[in-house]
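Records of this kind hold a single protein each, on a pair of labelled lines. Below, a sample record shows both lines together.
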Amino acid sequence: MYRYKIYGIILESEFELKLLVPAEESDLTSDVITVRERDVEEEVINCLKSANALKKQYEIGLEKSVMENIGGYYLIQNSQIFVKLKKGYTYEIISAWIIGYCLSMALLQKEILTIHCSAIATDYGAVMISGTPGAGKSSLAGKLLEQGYKLMADDVAAVRCIDDECIVYSAFPFQKLCSNEVEKRNLNKNTLIYINEDKDKYLVPVNDIFVPHPLKLKAFFYIIKAPVKELTIDKLSGFECFMSIKDNLFLHRLTGQWETTPMVINQCMNIASGCDVYLIVRPDNTDTLEDISKYVNNCISYAI
């Protein structure tokens, strides 16, 4: 078995997951999730039929989840992820789905939420940056890294609320960069991991600035672009904070009744009330990155 450390848990897998950080012998925790090969095709299809979910090809629950896609069949239950490959696919090809959707479903069953965001480590705690596609989430995260902050997660972070504290857990030491940014930095594409998303992107290792240990969540920033003339940054409160967290859950794109369960609602409320939440609205035709980073730096300093 391969053993990896991610999101504060140990992931044990029968096959190699190259993106993840190998766990050390000293990494002991009761939170262990296993990935195994098993013929779950019939069980997954039957579950989807009974839930009338064949068209959407997934059904998420707090005790059992199933999913089918072009690469395989997946069953998630009791801290285990069972996988049946489809013809023509390998575990290396489907590994992104395993450590993305499947692992998020397994963590949900442990009352750990995954957030679609960049997570930055500061001297005061963790800062999460989310946003609509193209709004500048990655650009802002990159700017903060240039200023000396450290990276916890580039695309997805995990949050667990313990008593009155919300703790952010790191992902893996890679940063997603578009092809033009890789060329701008004079990086050798042949040494990087290519990922097929909406745009040509590469996974770039960032071991020197990666923070693997958990930190208390201090602030959450949500960025959108709009046809406005001026940059506005507002601190949110109440229901707006709650919706900013809920709408940025990594599994939010896989809608279902799971989103309205008391556990998910309560966890989102705990996260929203456990940190400062800001909405950043930036003009869609003006470069305001410098102004945004200055404001965020001020917020970080005061979020003690």
